[in-house]
EKC/KEOPS complex subunit BUD32 (Thermothelomyces thermophilus), 302 residues
Amino acid sequence: MAPFLRMPFRSLSADNLISRGAAGHVFHISPNIVLKCPTKFDNGLPEQIKEMEESSKKIEAEKAVYRILMEHPHPNIVQCILCVPEGIFLRRMESTLQERLSQSRKATIPARTQERWVLQLTSAVAWLERLGLVHGDLRPANILLDANDNIQLSDFDATVKPGAELIVASEPFCKMDENFETPPAGPVSEQFSLASCIYTIRFGHWPWHELDPRARGEKLRRNKFPSVSADIVFGDVTTRCWHGEYTSIASVQQDVLSRLGRSIAKDEALMQVAIEEIATQYPLLRAECERFVATQARERSS
């Protein structure tokens, strides 16, 4: 028999599939919820069996990160609602930052929106740092946007502790030396990724987007970066991050806030209000997930 994708629950089908990535699949559950689950095949070929094993490892690693984040939520990190053997129930978002930026060629994104995104992304990455985590794969495809056009950082299957070896290297969002080696996970690696994300937000395209991948990689490995002079607000932040000049992501966050005329104290107060709002919504979302799982269990046993 030919191999075919195994659904995590009987009621789901290919019609529910939203996206597929290296870690697994994302399925639509309701207008509020999606399920991220490992890739599984029935009658899988040898290479598919290897893919299944890797996918399961990635999802389990991501669950571990989300369990930490459930205890320490942040308003700009996608909300995990429930972890089950089949996968991870997450708050549903509207689109990825990459999709939104690709649309900007037709409709320019307002400067205030760009500034908000830079602040929100930096805040989310600094929060991970505070928790002793390094995202490890910061790029627009892994940054989501909610219905209010706010950043929601996601995809933690490559997240590691500071000092660990990075799991992935996605150019132009990962720092590499001339031997194609990456630095240990930490402020230097995250700053580089953050800089390329900020540049992409501000200019609407990747650094050296006009070059082919090999030529672009050569430029970045030799620390040759495109001009940021047109960005009078964050240009210097971007350059300093590319060169790893900040001692921490928290320092980047402080610099971003100061350039926007905001204080850490006010920002943390606003964040606390947002966290409390997340807490009020959580019980209803969890109950919805638990009802879905219970219904699937009954159908399986009938």
